[in-house]
Design a protein that fits this description.
Elements: H1 5-38, H2 45-76, H3 83-103, H4 111-141, H5 150-171, E1 176-177, E2 189-194, E3 197-202, H6 203-225, H7 227-237, H8 239-244, H9 249-275, E4 277-278, H10 284-297, H11 302-323, H12 330-344
Helix pairs in contact: 2-6, 2-9, 2-10, 2-11, 3-4, 3-5, 3-9, 3-10, 4-9, 6-7, 6-9, 7-9, 10-11, 10-12, 11-12
Amino acid sequence: MTDDRSPRRMLSVARYIRPAIGVVVVVFLAWRIWGVLSAEQAYGLDTWLRFAISGIVLGGVYALIALGYTLVYGILFMINFAHGDVMMLGAFAGYFTLEALNGAGFLNSSPLASIVSVVVAFIVGMLVAMLVAITLERIAYRPLRSAPRLVPLISAIGASLFLQNAAQLVFGTARRAYTNPQIIERNAGWNVMVGGKEVLITYTGVLTFVLSVLLMVGLYILVQRTKMGKAIRAVAEDKQTSALMGIDVDRVIASTFAISGVLAGAAGVMWGLHMGVLYHYVGFIPGIKAFTAAVLGGIGNIPGAMLGGLALGLMEAVAPAILGIPFQLKDVLAFSILILVLVFRPTGILGEVLSEKKM
């Protein structure tokens, strides 16, 4: 007769390990925050507002990219790790569009021409990213649809490396500076007085945040209120039953990748206009952080991706100052959040309601 008391004892001990780790993390964070707040204030109200504005703008970009992750996961249950590189190609498309318009003397010929140039750059960036996303789905993912989940994941990593190296080969390794129209120059905007000091609200920051919100709201309406959205939700729930009901599953999946590509392309052009720096590796870190945002909000949950992106952007901008750590460690902080969410709440802030078939 076997003695099963040892496994039971181990399970009993393991039950208390995660809460104990959580308590240690909370105590450590509280200690760091108390130490910073009780010390002599290094930052004024104006500086905290600058941090918050920067975090909101960055969070809007993260949210757009995270929506692409969550759309693909919701319909195929895979993480498209090439999504950040799709954003990078969209950013390059917008860059070359603005360069061509500037070379033709159209970019700053008039305020209307500048507005048209920005619109054209966004359209070209979104179309290029959409085509890249559709091509990836057709070549790298569709043949592996019936394979185990690990296989498409490996394919996504390979696609990411391929796009990075292809961009390096075609565009070179030199960093490029985005050519902004004069009406939305970087580091220009409105100055507001906060605590007796000026706080700059940049034109590019406002443009990025407003467009991010509009695209996120538009996506939510599309998924919830349109025929295509209903088809996407049906295929995400059960592909076989959807096919029996007359839904073209391949077309719906391709449309989902197209939508995710459009969002990534828009995010890429926003990144270029606001940050100003572009190179072949520029999409990798924002892409991984957007994945963190999607997990934080609840992978597969569209409102969760929006909330997770904005929350991650704010935490990345404000948390180093609150915790009293160097701002160079903001990437470490973002990925630490990913680990903590996966350990303590894998479903994220809002979570995903899973059917038995998905589980």
